[in-house]
Amino acid sequence: MKKIFTLLIVFCGLFAVLNAQTALDPGKFVNEQITEAGVYTVEAGKSYAFDGRLDLTFEVTIEGPDNGWIGKDANPPVLVNTPAADGSARQFFEVKENGSLTLKNVLITGLHSNDEVVSQMIMNTAGESFIVDNCAFVDWANFALRNKSIKGVMSVTNCVFLNGVRLSFSQWGGMPIRMDVAPDSMVYENNTIVNSGRLFANMGPYLNCKMTELHNTFVNTIVMNHEQVGYQMLHANNLFYNYHWIGMNTDNHSVPDLYINQYMTTFNYFAWGKGRLDSTSLYLGQNLFYRPQEVSDWFVEFGGDSIAESLLWEHPDVDSFVVADDNYTIGTNYAEMEPNFTTPVGNLDKIVENLHAHRLTPTEDWVDWRSPSPVTFTDEGLPTLSWPPAFDLSYSHKGLQTAGTDGLPLGDLNWFPEKKAEYLANRDAIIVALKDSMANATAVYDPLTMDATPMITEITVGIEQVVRESMDVYVYPNPARDMISVYGIDQAGSTITFYDLLGKEIEFVQLEGLNTQLDISNLDKGVYLYRINTSDNVSIKTGKLMIAK
User: Is 189 helix (H, G, I), strand (E, B) or coil?
Assistant: First the structure.
């Protein structure tokens, strides 16, 4: 009995050591306190300062209290950094060989007390794992998170990224994540990204990564460029609102001859994989791409944008991928559906002002289009927090609330908590179904028959009935070339009339059925007004149509 009692004491002591947590002292620099592997806790409502970069060659977890989703937690712990001796902003972490980093339930700001903004917050150069859950990253210039390790696991879930912007007229930088190369596994799910420069980048030539990018909400992205190449990539059920608002650069741009400006639109996969198609699989489907009318109107008035919503995939090598590889599947996606956010981000006027200056007067002062920083500093250099942000990106569009491959709302499900619980309960089956879609998708983009199988379609069977009942009517694609569809009105005798900008009637067409295909090849390049009327001459929709030949 004495031996058993002794073993029990030893076991309990070992368990206590393995589960020991160290509370960080907000009165001391974090760097002074984290000197070995362990779990370090931080308190709600407290700020914790770094004295420059902390290099990790061991396993570290920093964890705040779990008070629900960070996007609505009014009092999270805040991590801040101090300026260098020369006044420059400084990085927080670098994860090196044998190191691992896990962050949970904290807010990290790249804004320093002298108003300098950090270039990158955290970089993984050779670590074993890099896991971030339920964190907020605010105010950075180039990369919030950066990965240079080709091994291990990277997971980013339930996070909010706000204000990733170079403080200049620039389409570069501002990435929530840059992957110079990719780890073996990458999970990017249920995140909200507001005001960012670009998305991911390239992932390197190794084709080693299995990646899921599911149920994320992206709002106000300057450039919609992914560039990644992986072994298996599943991109579905995301919401891209005001995507690529700087436009596809043709004319009216400060650097019109720079080649990369000519093709950078949305999901551009590098040609490294072209000779290894059997090693690459992709499903990209049932995402929403939406541009608000204010941005579209600017391009209608001033020109310089060649993006058509059925032509988001403009890297020439990708077309050969789609034709040659049955496992490289671009499913149908959505466009022209305004989600109707409960509380929009609210900086659209400033975005249009920045767009105008960026393209037409780039030598003048930069127009700051960011949302107000949630972290400010007192005269004594102490941080104060105003959180959560004022926007609420839940939305009222009934069709989009069931538009995912899984029948759930598009975008970050943290805005729909009950639906998030449903997603987590069924995630394994949802992933299996997406993998199955690569082999058995029934609606895919084929560049050889693009008019019949566009990458972007207005509707799929899954939400057709919902849209019909709400009487939403859509004219797409816009801009268009030779054909458009008018969807959503099945009343006999309905019509669409086209006018020039002076109000002169150009063409009058009778609509036939719920989805009418119209040949507009006889219309010249330019901008037209249109009106859709019912048979009793009631106007149910008006708008502008841009025709690009």
Answer: strand
Name the CA dihedral angle for 112, 115, 120, 121, rounded to a multiple of 10 degrees: 20
Residue 4 pLDDT level (bands cut at 50, 70, 90): low
Count of other CB atoms within 10 angstroms of residue 250: 15
Q: Give the residue ranges of DSSP H helices in 212-331.
A: 259-263, 293-302, 316-324
158 sits in the region (left: phi over 0; alpha: psi -120 to 50; else beta) called left
Amino acid at 81: N
48 Cα distance to chain centroid: 29
Highest mean pLDDT among 122-126, 315-319, 510-514: 122-126
Of residues 12 and 332, which shows the higher confidence score? 332
- Residue 498: pLDDT above 80? yes
B/e letters for 256-289, b = 16+ CB within 10 Å, e = fewer, are eeeeebeebbbbbbbebbbeeeeebbbbbbbbbb
CA distances in angstroms from 294 to 291, 352, 353, listed in the order given:
8, 7, 11
Q: What tens digit of pLDDT does each residue of 58-103 get?
A: 999 999 999 999 999 999 999 999 999 999 999 999 999 999 999 9
Question: Sign of the CA dihedral 68, 72, 74, 77?
Answer: positive
Question: How would you label 24-59 residue by residue, b for 16+ Cβ within 10 Å and e otherwise?
Answer: beeeebbbeebeeeebbbbeeeebbbbeebbebeeb
> Edge to edge, what strands does the sheet with 526-533 contain?
505-510, 495-499, 526-533, 539-547
For the record, the structure tokens of 140 come out as 């950075």
User: Which residues does 387 contact at the CB level (< 8 Å), separation at least 6?
Assistant: 73, 74, 75, 76, 107, 136, 374
Q: Does residue 300 surpass a pLDDT of 90?
A: no
Instruction: Report pLDDT digits (tens) over 212-232.
Output: 999 999 999 988 767 666 788
Give the angle subtended at the CA of 271 by the CAs of 265 and 277, to the nearest 5°: 120
In a 3-state reduction of DSSP, which class is residue 334? Answer: strand
From CA 349, how far away is CA 206, in angstroms rounded? Answer: 42
Euclidean distance between CA atoms 337 and 470, whole angstroms: 12
Contact 113, 377 (CB under 8 A): yes
Phi and psi at residue 120, in whole multiples of 5°?
-135, 145
Strand, helix or coil for residue 198: coil
β strands within 97-209, DSSP E: 100-104, 107-109, 120-124, 129-133, 136-140, 143-147, 153-157, 160-164, 175-179, 185-189, 192-196
CA gyration radius, the chain: 25
